[in-house]
Amino acid sequence: MQTEAASLHGHRRERAYEHLRDDILAGRYRNGESLTEARICQDLGVSRTPVREAFCQLELDGLVRMIPNKGAVVTGFGTHDMDDMFQIRMMVEGIAVRRAAEAMTDSELELLEAALLEEEEMTRRGDTEALQRVDSRFHEILFRGSGSRVLQTLLSALHLHSRQARSLSLSSGTRARESLEEHRRILEALKRRDPVLAQQEMERHVGNAAANYHRSTQNGGNEG
Asked: Given this model, what pLDDT does residue 221 score?
C-alpha cells in the first residue's frame, strides 16, 4: 500500500510540474506573475504537497523564484537567455545534423520527409499549434538520426525551453513558409549525404529563427 501511495504521489507531483512548466514555457504566465497555489491545486485536482514540490523543481529549472510571503514568482526566460539558447542551438544542432548526414538510415530519412510533408500541409492551413508539433518532430528525428544520445538529450531540452520563441516565430505566416523551405534544404543535404552542406543549412535555419524572434519581440514589446 505504501508503494502504491508513493507512486500515486509521484504521479501527481510530475503532472503538476509538467503542467506548470509547459504553461510557463508557452507564455501563459508572464514574467513576474505569482503562481496561486490554491488555484493550481483546484485546477489540477491535487493537494498542496505535489504543487509545492513542483514549485521546488521549477525553481531548480530557473523558471520560478520562491519569495517569502509571496510564493512562487515566474522568472521564465528573457531576451538574453534566448540569445544564449539560439547560439547554443546553432552550434550543437550543426554538429547533430552533420553527424546525421553520415549516420541516418533510409527509414529515418523517410520519417523526416513524412514530417516535412505534414509541415507543408499545416503551413498551408495556418495551424500554428499543429505546426509547432510537427516542427518539433522534424528536429527530434534529426537529433535521433545523429546517433548520439548526448546530443539528442541536450537538444530535446533546448527545444523544450525555447517553445515560446518557436510558437511566436511560427505564428508569423511568412516565417512559417521560410522555415518550411529551410527544412526542405536541410533534408536535401541529408539525402545527398553531404555533412558540410547539412551543417551550413542548419546553422542558417537557426540563425534565421533567431533573427525573426528578435523582430517579433521588438514589434510586440515582449521580453520573451
From this structure: 42
Tell me, yes or no, whether 94 and 45 share the same domain: no
pLDDT tens per residue across span 2-32:
566 566 677 888 999 988 988 887 778 888 8
> How does pLDDT run across 147-159, given as a tens digit for each residue?
999 999 999 888 8
Domain with residue 27: its CATH number is 1.10.10.10
Per-residue pLDDT at 219 exceeds 60: yes
- List the beta bridge partners of residue 66: 72
**Best CA proximity match to 34, nearest among 42, 45, 24, 49:** 24
Distance of CA 123 to the CA centre of its chain: 18
Dihedral sign for Cα atoms in the order 83, 85, 91, 93 = negative
Q: Is the separation of the CB atoms in 122 and 130 below 8 Å?
A: yes
Residue that is written with C-alpha cell 527530434 in the block: 140
